[in-house]
Amino acid sequence: MAWRFALMIDPAASDDARTDFADTFTSVDPSAPALTVGELSTQRGDGIFESIGVVDGHAQEVAAHLDRLAHSARLCDLPQPHAEQWRQAVARAAAECGQGEAVIKLILSRGIEHGPTPTAWVTAAEAADNTAARTHGIRVVTLDRGYRLDVPARAPWLLLGAKTLSYAVNMAAIREAKRRGADDAIFTTSDGFVLEAPTASLVLRRGDTFVTPAPNAGILQGTTQLSLFEHLETRGFATAYATIPVDELTSADAAWLLSSVRLAAPIREIDGTGIPVDDALTAAMNAYLLSPRD
Length: 294
Ligand code: PLP
Prior knowledge:
With about 290 residues, this protein is of the alpha+beta class.
């Protein structure tokens, strides 16, 4: 990973009326140690994050990412992030990104054990080259997440739907998908419904309608999916949120995994069954997703 930039943030209270937060930022060397050993983000994965795609220095969909950071903070009982402070931190990081694709990460940790405040920081790094996934497509396998569809409502302490730093399970699912000869996974509920990928949202095309699993199923509302749905609507397509049974996956007319950095990766195989790939539509989606979006 080619790091470009890292900024420690002294988190402002959500009602702080300042307009300039420059003196709450400390630029640090991104390849040098910056956290203390008591950090709860590293000890327990206790914190939240966002990954923002950057194209030619433009950070995409910043407001949607900040909204989701605030939503995750509410679910995790963390102090509300100060939106303007984070927006200025993202602007500082984006200014370091230069031409090409990059990724800005926002991290808000519960802080140091017994310490007074959360720890917060922003990083910027070069993005991986995702051309192959965007153009040739990906093979996925379905993996049981082990929860029924009604678990998020019954057990909110599982934090399903918050983008927490505890991604070890998500990473394990991707490794399992690779062991099975695929590129990525789609999580399913134990009672047979489709959820999301470990780091992406799922969108299916059925005729002229684009469908994605409803976010109240304990999945993240994808900023890329939201932005793409708005765009597809302006092109005259219908969009919908639905509860999708697993056995409807392979009858889709086309399917994609969507995320902020890889963007639209067309799915060409699910559990070994071929799925039609619409090259022209996929290219148009990625052209839109690579255009400057606010
Ligand atoms: N679902 C999960 C579990 C994710 O981790 C992500 C992105 O990291 C997404 C969905 C897609 O979200 P976005 O489009 O905002 O990147």
